[in-house]
Design brief:
Among the domains are: about 70 residues, no CATH class; about 80 residues, no CATH class. About 60% of the residues lie in helices and about 0% in strands. With about 230 residues, it is mostly helical. The protein contains twelve helices and no strands. It starts with a helix and ends in a 13-residue tail after the last helix. Helix 1 runs antiparallel to helix 3, helix 1 packs parallel to helix 5 and helix 5 packs antiparallel against helix 6. Bound molecules: zinc ion. The site of zinc ion has 5 residues, from loops.
């Protein structure tokens, strides 16, 4: 998993050496380099800009730390790689849409953290950073609550329970490792204290976000052949 997380940022910037080296199966580029377009990045292009790259690298280092990886690996399932992949994809365009709004860096960090670790993590992080929760953060927390409520509802449905039972049986048969025998695939409110220094480095200044927007690649114009 650490390998995957380390490969995500270079991948988004068009550097697939690590994807290749580790034969990462979610990287479609290495399967078909000529046809490949990023599904979730602006205009399907690689991301650009050294400052954006370094910011994202710092952010992902937070989540690729041994501590976080250990937590995540106990949730081991094939879905995690996919989910991480789509999380990066979906967050990158959001840098555009929310650019200039307050705490959009936290927005990104919180969204990712929430996906894996639940709401408790967000609060820990904010406290860690000495951040006064702003409007957006507050809204985020409300929507987290709603998501949670929905999730609870979903999990109590007969359909969900049936699927869960089936998945559990499949998983047990597939993987006999001790971790998976536990059968714990999701736990909300897993408290986790992160290295504040790592977090500090992952913070982005408001003005920087504007800069990133300038680096978004335009659509390639259609080439017209005159005969
Ligand atoms: Zn790749």
């Amino acid at each position: 998993m650490k390998v995957t997380m380390k490969a995500i940022v270079p991948h988004a910037f068009g550097d697939h050496q690590q994807c290749q080296h580790h034969k990462l199966n979610w990287c479609e580029y290495i399967k078909n380099p000529d046809q490949y377009r990023h599904k979730d990045l602006p205009n399907g292009k690689d991301l650009q800009g050294e400052s954006l790259k370094s910011v994202l690298t710092n952010l992902f280092n937070v989540y690729a730390s041994d501590l976080v990886v250990k937590k995540l690996v106990s949730n081991a399932s094939s879905q995690i790689n996919e989910s991480w992949h789509s999380t990066v994809g979906s967050k990158a365009p959001k840098i555009r849409f929310y650019g200039g709004s307050e705490s959009s860096d936290q927005r990104v960090a919180a969204a990712v953290a929430q996906t894996n670790l639940g709401k408790q993590y967000l609060l820990d992080t904010l406290r860690c950073l000495n951040v006064e929760p702003g409007n957006i953060t507050e809204k985020n927390i409300l929507s987290l609550d709603k998501d949670r409520e929905d999730e609870k509802h979903r999990k109590s449905s007969v359909k969900f329970k049936k699927e869960r039972r089936q998945n559990y049986t499949k998983k047990k048969a597939r993987n006999k490792s001790d971790v998976n025998k536990e059968g714990v695939t999701y736990q909300s409110g897993v408290a986790l204290t992160l290295d504040p220094q790592l977090l500090q480095r992952a913070i982005v200044a408001k003005e920087k976000l504007k800069e990133f927007e300038k680096d978004v690649q335009r659509k390639t114009p259609k080439v017209v052949h005159y005969v």
